[in-house]
């Protein structure tokens, strides 16, 4: 026979409610869980850790300024440390998307920390005379400075992880740039033959684009390092000790190991969420760079017999349930899809930031949900792109050479010597008849064989100053 579930009675300003006796969360968390079953997901683990770090910093600071006794402060700090270590995460039961500007998460943290601190002090969960979620754990704070601050701290941590993967990508791309530096292929503009380029140059260009994204992420981290912690409800610091306000960000910086500073204008930092829009834009920009690169990889590997077929992507899985031997570019495809989702998330973040009114924006929960998803999925996409694609790419050198030799695009190099009109006439005849460009130039005695060998040297066409009229 199943054991009968036991409850304790808790009350808040709405009324009384039965809470499971073993639960560390309380009545306000339970109401939020019932009100906001939206995604069916839990809070991001790093967000839980970040809010626990803030509560730890607040307890230490309130003790330092004489607003919290040592016994309660020590118990709260111990409870926070346990959460930071990964314990009690299952007690954070509120949905990531929630009304109330993040009050549900803040109270979830306050109640879990309070009840664990009560246990540490020898009491029973729910006896808030020992440690109170509002009066002790939340002292000198408001959801309106705690929630934005823990969101920024979480974004900082995730951005750091993304940068590590992007640095790996740059390293892998540069390695391929060296490996493929001698491979001459046809460059294309608007998917039409242009002029020769080295495959290594293309990979080097990809690395340069990603390096810019890494630099942008440094700016993003700077945006996220400025906290409105200490501003309480609307940035005026009401109910916070003035000495607490001056010390709390310094303490959270020490606890988290992050470079954090207090916002210059706490009212502005509480009202305006443009920093999130800027950071989301930087993440979106990186996603666009990755998606464009993935498009190129899919094109260059297309075929393998009837497409470009210039490179081979690693075969990772069967490409069809009906076509034997078919292998698809699944890794670039998943990177494309991640990018599409990030671009959509960016729009959501922009609209949520715009929707604030007066002294507070109530829509930070959806901003955090989308921003964390964007940064994290980008991180995972880059990791699989490096491990399962870039490092295993090989070049079809002979195929690349064949396409260059057959291309009409090399005609561009003779323009300085014979003029645009004559070169265009040769190009048109070559396209119409399928004749070789070199043969037509020699037939019409536009250039000598020796001149052609110098001018139409494919490698020379890939570097400025190697070929040119002044050299003849």
TrEMBL record:
<dbReference type="InterPro" id="IPR022761">
    <property type="entry name" value="Fumarate_lyase_N"/>
</dbReference>
<keyword id="KW-0456">Lyase</keyword>
<dbReference type="GO" id="GO:0008797">
    <property type="term" value="F:aspartate ammonia-lyase activity"/>
</dbReference>
<feature type="domain" description="Fumarase C C-terminal">
    <location>
        <begin position="410"/>
        <end position="463"/>
    </location>
</feature>
<dbReference type="GO" id="GO:0005829">
    <property type="term" value="C:cytosol"/>
</dbReference>
<dbReference type="GO" id="GO:0008652">
    <property type="term" value="P:amino acid biosynthetic process"/>
</dbReference>
<protein>
    <recommendedName>
        <fullName>Aspartate ammonia-lyase</fullName>
        <ecNumber>4.3.1.1</ecNumber>
    </recommendedName>
</protein>
<keyword id="KW-0028">Amino-acid biosynthesis</keyword>
<dbReference type="InterPro" id="IPR008948">
    <property type="entry name" value="L-Aspartase-like"/>
</dbReference>
<dbReference type="InterPro" id="IPR000362">
    <property type="entry name" value="Fumarate_lyase_fam"/>
</dbReference>
<dbReference type="Pfam" id="PF10415">
    <property type="entry name" value="FumaraseC_C"/>
</dbReference>
<dbReference type="InterPro" id="IPR018951">
    <property type="entry name" value="Fumarase_C_C"/>
</dbReference>
<dbReference type="InterPro" id="IPR004708">
    <property type="entry name" value="ApsA"/>
</dbReference>
<dbReference type="GO" id="GO:0006099">
    <property type="term" value="P:tricarboxylic acid cycle"/>
</dbReference>
<feature type="domain" description="Fumarate lyase N-terminal">
    <location>
        <begin position="15"/>
        <end position="344"/>
    </location>
</feature>
<dbReference type="InterPro" id="IPR051546">
    <property type="entry name" value="Aspartate_Ammonia-Lyase"/>
</dbReference>
<dbReference type="GO" id="GO:0006531">
    <property type="term" value="P:aspartate metabolic process"/>
</dbReference>
<dbReference type="Pfam" id="PF00206">
    <property type="entry name" value="Lyase_1"/>
</dbReference>
<dbReference type="InterPro" id="IPR024083">
    <property type="entry name" value="Fumarase/histidase_N"/>
</dbReference>
<dbReference type="InterPro" id="IPR020557">
    <property type="entry name" value="Fumarate_lyase_CS"/>
</dbReference>
<comment type="similarity">
    <text>Belongs to the class-II fumarase/aspartase family. Aspartase subfamily.</text>
</comment>
